[in-house]
Design brief:
This protein is 12% helix and 54% strand. By secondary structure, it is mostly beta strands. It has a single domain, classed as Lipocalin (Beta Barrel). Strands 1-2-3-4-5-6-7-8 form an 8-stranded antiparallel β-barrel. The longest helix has 14 residues.
């Protein structure tokens, strides 16, 4: 009988746990800023429904291609691996955030609104 309250509490807390968005919901055009080994700059990404992405980092005088994929792990977390490293993916409000495992790289993007 004492187990029942603990089970109910566990179910209630699990229902409140934040869930990661489905990779397909990230499909579309994104623009923002990225930090790479070369520095910080504006960038643009196109994410496909299966999580693959391509884009461009706009460095002064030299644009650099970006590419990779966002994947969902069995525990629901999102991760990316790409031309600029690998790390965690999260969506907070309207922002798509990539946080590199090295702590120095990553980016913050918002859905593109125009050409």
């Amino acid at each position: 009988m004492r187990l029942a309250p603990k089970v109910l509490l566990g179910v209630a807390l699990a229902g409140c746990a934040p869930t990661s968005p489905h990779v397909g919901s990230l499909a579309g055009e994104w623009q923002g800023r990225i930090a790479t080994a070369r520095g910080h700059t504006a960038a643009r990404l196109t994410v496909t429904p299966d999580g693959r992405f391509e884009g461009t980092a706009f460095f002064a005088g030299t644009d650099r291609p970006l590419y990779g994929a966002i994947v969902a792990l069995p525990d629901g977390r999102l991760r990316y691996i790409g031309s600029e490293g690998e790390g965690a993916v999260s969506v907070k409000g309207e922002a798509l955030r990539l946080r590199g495992d090295d702590g120095a790289t990553g980016g913050v993007f918002r859905r593109a609104t125009g050409p």
